[in-house]
Design a protein that fits this description.
Mean pLDDT: 94
Strand content: 5-15%
Number of strands: 7
Radius of gyration: 18 Å
Number of domains: 1
CATH architecture: 3-Layer(aba) Sandwich
CATH superfamily: Thiamin diphosphate (ThDP)-binding fold, Pyr/PP domains
Order of helices and strands: HHHEHHEHEEEHHEHEH
Largest sheet: 5 strands, parallel
Strand order of the largest sheet: 1-2-3-7-6
Oligomer: single chain
CATH class: Alpha Beta
Number of helices: 10
CATH topology: Rossmann fold
Distance between the termini: 25 Å
Structural class: alpha/beta
Amino acid sequence: MTSNDLSTLSAKAKWVWRETLKVHRHAPETRIASSLSPVEIFVALYYGGVLRFDPKNPRSEQRDRCIISKGHGSICMYPILADLGFFPASELDRVCKAGGFLGGIPDPIIPGYETVNGSLGHGMGVATGIALGLKVKKSDRSVFVITGDGELHEGANWEAFMFASHHKLDNLNLIVDDNQISMLGQTDNIVSHDSLAARLRAFGWNCTEVDGHDVMAVQEALTSMKSQSAGKPKALLARTKKGHGVPSLEGADLAHIMNPKPEWIDTVLEANNE
């Protein structure tokens, strides 16, 4: 990408961050802290030339598959999908409202979402199955799956990691929103991953680590990952902060379940008005 493209990418990330806060202001049922940590990840995927997609035909066979396992933490995808033309921007005013289809936890009724994203820990297995299916069909499409670090406590993920490595699924790309906080506290205080990168490598994966709030670094890492075809699945550990950019929310142990009051959000938006 050119320097101008990357500047545009950074500006887009700031816009998505603001729009996500606005969505939560009107729909407090949404999980705001979990949806602010992966903003740069989704911006890099959808605006950075990483994913192949068609807003006019979201189920096109020519698309890359993007499985959002941490569905509750992807409310930042709503303004992205609206901006790209998957659905009208007017739907953003109806999040969690009667007549709207944008809920507190997304599902495939939303154009651009592939799977049901309720109970955590299942996205990895689904993505692995899709990746194997595409391999059998000799398709050159890629599969991306976005998980939180907390949901990797679920054992089904590790079965999928072993399966993907055994079948040499180099069309499979895992992105971990590594924000270090689960629902009720620090992830490592609940069940420590004790060097997640080393564990993934031990399971036969190529693994890269990056600052998850540096959208340029994320875009470059994802582009590089997608191009690799050495017979190994690939993982990107994006180090992020839960509640990124919001004072008193960012990094708080209970950020996952905190709902900032509307006036608090107004203050944060005003302070970051550009």
